[in-house]
Design a protein that fits this description.
Number of helices: 3
Radius of gyration: 19 Å
Largest sheet: 5 strands, antiparallel
Strand order of the largest sheet: 1-15-14-13-6
Shape: globular
Number of strands: 15
Length: 261
Amino acid sequence: MKKTNVMNSKIKSNRLIHIFRYLHGRMVLTAVCGIISVSLLITGCVDYGAEEFTGKILPRVSGYTTGVTNDWLYFNLRTGEVFNRTMPNRDISEGDQKERTDWDLAFCGYRLRTNSGTSGIGQGGAIDLGYGTYDKWTSVSQLPANAEWIVDTDTDVYVTMSQNDWNKYLIEHNLDFKDNPWFDPNNGPQKTLTSANRLLANSMEFSGPPPVYLPSFHTYVVRSADGGRYFKLQIISWYNTNTEIGDTGGQISYYCDELQP
């Protein structure tokens, strides 16, 4: 079965899985039963378990939960090389990526970078091709001739600060820990601006607390650092699709394939 034939059921399935994970954590069993009943009415007899995910999964969780605010996983889409695969800043430290052209796309939690603008000296950037339709786009010749490629900025996208980095910030600025908690019940953990792609920031929506992550299911195109190759991208889930429901998330599942010249 092609992805185009199952996209609608995939989207419904993923949204229901996100909702189920949230409710399961709060043990609201009656609500879960209601959601399952509604889903059966909407989707009919669809065997989601038989549909194998053929995309990609991040090699590890990235972002503030590792204790590092700007914990980025870098990908060279042209060669398949991955930087910082096993731990934060092991291969590329924060700031060093700006002078390198051997990476094209990066993940920090649900935030993304391209090698462009304030993130790097490359000719990268991204465009949005709209909701779904991932399989429709196969070649560079299909891309809109007047497409506006969005490059990275350091004034538009926020990432969650790690508790370690927030504590260091308080110490450096002589601020009181009790008056400036890392986590606020109404607003969640502290955040800070980072260099990232504001268009790709729309690929996943966050709400909470409690935290809920919902992908937009838009298809994006990322231009390589050398400006010569193009890769379509679609975020599928905040979760590792091969992990059971107890997964807390962060190991994102996604599709990424090169467009033919």
